[in-house]
Amino acid sequence: MYAMDDLIDTKRGLQSASMFIDPHLYEVEMEKIFGRCWLFLTHESAIPNYGDFVTAKMGEDEVLVVRQADGTVKAFLNVCRHRGARVCPVEAGNRRAFVCSYHGWSYAADGSLATVPFEKELYGGKIDRCAHGLKEVAKVDSYRGFLFGNFDPGAISLEDYLGDVRWYLDIWMEASGGVELIGAPARSIVHCNWKAPTENFVGDAYHVGWTHASSLAVSRSMFSPMSGNQRLPPAGAGAQIATRFGHGLGILYDVNPGGQPAQTAEKILAWQATKKGKIAEKYGELKARFYGSHLNGSLFPNVSYLWGTNTFKIWQPRGPSETEVWTWAIAEKDTPEDLKRDIYNGVHGTFGTAGYWEADDNDNMESASLLPTGWQSRKLRLNAQMGIGNDTVMDEMPGVIGQAAIGETSYRGYYRFYDEILKLPSWDAFDLNDEGWKQQLIDADC
Ligand SMILES: CCSc1ccccc1
Ligand code: FES
Ligand SMILES: [Fe+3]
User: Fold this and answer.
1) How many angstroms separate the CA atoms of 342 and 344, rounded?
2) Residue 401: helix, strand or coil by DSSP?
3) Can you give the residue range of the structural domain that contains 291?
4) ipTM of predicted complex
5) 331 and 359 share a domain?
6) What sections of the protein cross the membrane (predicted)?
7) Which atom of ligand 1 is nearest to the CA of 202?
8) Which terminus of the chain has a smaller tally of CB atoms within 10 A, N or C?
């Protein structure tokens, strides 16, 4: 059994390897993280009309996300209130009612219990209908079209929960003119703990040259000069950012198309050149530069994205050692259709189920997650000390900043909040104005 205080050492940027394997910790994570944090559901554009729905996952819970008649969105556990069978077996569609395939109970789009077969004859009218509607997810909210849900009615708002990271999300969710998720997500299983890939995307530019050496060599991408660790990005080529709620990212300046194959990268650069001037006028030079940069990021607990390599991922936990990966391609809404198709193909060829970048990563995710099965291996500490002691704050961009293209500032930020939320009695006990988290990260040192 893990000891909570031995799990995360924010002061020294260390984490216990047991966090990837401990089944008791996993249950605490499901309760205290997935039961209380804002979890990605879908994008508004996927359910535009009344009755449109998708099924999604919130931790290990399967939910039904439905557009309501009044234009709002509700989410429900996709679980029949009679004997618990799945109410909606399909991933997406349009329904005004959902009928359970087991005994035929039906529910309206607003989750209320609509019909019960032979209700009078078999129940004598004794069913409390109000108590048998689909269990509603306490809160659903949207940020720039990205819909999130929260099981905890006492949780802080989505806007507060995203906090400083909104400034960086707005680079591609707003300044770009807005984005869309293209098509249905590719789904695959990786034999790893859900945190391993999330931490990789939050801040691991360090692995790109080594893990992806062959992918970089064959793709002739903008990252290819890093192949095999031939060279580091030059000094001042990027930054690492940590924010209050564990959300973090890395930025590699001016190389937006990042891991896209060369021919797609050229088209993306030409397309972005037509927009950058207007973005600079409206949002300033810094955001315009970041629009043309490559961003790798994660939103706590399990959302990741690559702005530039156009990838959007959810790492759905399925036990401590298995993760179901949902991968979408993201593109700016106003991208020409032929380029959107190239981007889609590029994403699913790199980070999709059978993508060559994905295959590189999965080996690392699986070994890092499964080796702590060893009783001695799980006692090891994982090192996230790159750049420790050099983190700072800057006037021009929010969060705690590591001023290096490769560093582990956002790892330390991710696990700092992981530690805090696991120990938080309830959101009532949370002080949104406490800025101490910044000093915790700035004071960290080996
Ligand atoms: C094109 C992949 S670049 C990257 C950087 C950091 C984390 C994950 C991926
Ligand atoms: S489990 Fe759904 S109607 Fe019985
Ligand atoms: Fe990778």
Assistant:
1) 5
2) strand
3) 4-24+159-443
4) 0.91
5) yes
6) none
7) 7
8) N
